Amino acid sequence: MAMLKIMKIMAAGDTWLEGRVEALLLWLEEWFSVSQKWAERGTMAVYIALILVPRSLEPAQIGLKLGLALLVGSMMWFLHRKPEAVRRLARRDPMFGVVRAVIAAFMVFLSAEIALMPPHNTATAASGLAQVVYLVFFYMTDITSGGECGRKRKLALEELKKMFGDLAWIPKPAQVPG
């Protein structure tokens, strides 16, 4: 009975987090014209920059951080390159939802453990923040916009149509024989 309750909480958390990340992507698209592709790449860069913060300047520590950045960066690039059909499947399939929920619970636990673990320094704060950034990235890779324009762009196009008419006077690109 307790396990069922935990699973319901995790499923609700998964749905909530997925909605928040989708709202973030929509907001970035509408207000800053940042596409999902570039949002994912930016998130990857932020994550790698955060995990590269070393605890000490020992060569072994720096080498370990560089190896970790290379390993996780290549895994993130693989997730970033998922085709749209796989992303759509991941949103509909309940098993993918369970996997996302388990990974989200682990990342939240890891971030909380890092935040509560003394001593606090720049490296631990960066590491805790990096786990949250990775979680957002992980949810981004299961969302697909389907190439739809944002709401603000549609409104801007409507304003242009009001100002200049139906825009039929703008030359169309030449048709390529095919």
What does the model show?
The protein has one domain (2-145). The protein has seven helices and no strands. The mean pLDDT is 82. By secondary structure, it is mostly helical.
What key attributes describe this structure?
178 residues; 7 helices; 0% strand; mainly alpha
Topology:
Layout: H1 2-32, H2 36-51, H3 59-80, H4 84-92, H5 94-116, H6 122-140, H7 151-164
Helix pairs in contact: 1-5, 2-3, 2-6, 4-5, 5-6
Provide the number of structural domains. Answer: 1
Beta fraction: under 5%
Percent helix range: over 70%
> Structural class, from secondary structure content?
mainly alpha
H/E topology pattern: HHHHHHH
Continuous helix count? 7
Report how far apart the termini are: 62 Å
Q: Average pLDDT across residues? A: 82
Any idea what the shape is? extended
How many distinct beta strands?
Answer: 0
Low-confidence stretches: none
* Main pleated sheet: none
Return Rg in Å: 21 Å
What is this entry, summarized?
The protein is mostly helical and 178 residues long. The protein has helices at residues 2-32, 36-51, 59-80, 84-92, 94-116, 122-140, 151-164.
